[in-house]
Amino acid sequence: MGLLYITLSVACSLTIAHLLKLSEQSKSRVLNILCINYITAASVSFFLSDSSAPLSEDFPEYLILLALFLGLIFIANLFIYSTSIDKIGMGISIAAMRMSLAIPIGLSIIFYNEQISVVQYIGMLLVFISLYLLLPRIKSNTLSLRSSIMFPVLLFAMTGIADASLKVYEREFSGVISEYGFLSMIFSSAFIFGTSILIFKKELSFKPKEIIYGIIIGLANLYSSFFLILALQEMNGSIVFSITNIANVVLGALIGIIIWKDTLSTKQKGGLVLALISILILI
Q: What single-letter DSSP state applies at residue 143?
């Protein structure tokens, strides 16, 4: 079942990426879409949750603080992701996000002592090599050095923190609150932060197109994280994060070629082949 959960999580992640690209092209307001996205995800996860833990006297207060922190990380990361797709392209944005697998993998091996075989270590090494090969060449005459460095670095760090937090939840808090309950807390927090910014900017209004985009992205966002948590319960985090991240890059590149008419260099084609080999090794 672990591989099925990974497949579903990847499908949701790719849906988010392409809807954000469509929303940027339609000149929709990204933050407004993200607010609808998070209130949708929070509402659905709340109603599906069967956990009464938030009302329990034993419910740890620091878990609420963790949810608030992650809510800020989630909405900031998705906003940066959308901007990055528009400024430096989908390929490099997805690759930068997915190279962040180093953070949750390191967490799984170092702090939770997860054991993997020598062959799987080789598979993870191939993951990083293939991700490097998949990165598109940045043309200095069209992109500033600051943008070309800032967006990938931010996406790397914030996505890594977000993914690692799901591993921490699975190990430390899954017995305290259900998956839906935990995600509801995070998404509610993200909605509060986003709405506060819109109120401050006096832009708390939503166009029909923004609402539609937000609802669909919200459902995809919820189940991208939900299926990832289920996969982590079935398989080692180091393997789950490796397969998930490289699958996002490979399929994202292929969909980009088919739908968005993207072109790949010889180096990137080699990266795709190596990525497929690494997935087979990890599986």
A: S
Q: Do the domain assignments include residue 47?
A: yes
pTM of the model: 0.81
Kindly state whether residue 52 falls inside one of the protein's structural domains: yes
Instruction: Find tokens 């993207």 and name the residue.
Output: 262
Grouping H, G, I as helix, E, B as strand and the rest as coil, residue 203 is: coil
* Structural domain span for residue 60: 2-115+143-238
Q: Is residue 77 part of a domain?
A: yes
Q: Give the C-alpha separation, 28 to 50, whole Å.
A: 35
Orientation angle between helical segments 208-234 and 2-25, nearest 10 degrees: 160
Cβ-contact 160, 97 below 8 angstroms: no
Q: What is the rounded distance in angstroms from the CA atom of residue 63 to the CA atom of residue 48?
A: 20
How many folded domains does the chain comprise? 1
**Going residue by residue through the chain (283 aa), what tens digit of pLDDT does each one get?**
889 999 999 999 999 988 988 887 787 898 999 999 999 999 999 888 765 444 555 667 778 888 899 999 999 998 898 888 777 777 777 777 877 877 887 888 888 887 778 887 888 788 788 877 876 665 555 555 566 678 888 888 899 898 888 888 888 888 888 888 888 999 999 999 999 999 998 888 999 999 999 999 999 999 998 999 899 889 888 788 888 888 888 888 788 778 877 777 788 788 878 887 887 787 6
Our CA angle for 227, 233, 238, nearest 5°, is 90
Q: Give yes or no for a contact between 212 and 40, defined as CB atoms under 8 angstroms apart.
A: no
Q: In this structure, are residues 261 and 122 in contact, taking their beta carbons and an 8 Å threshold?
A: no
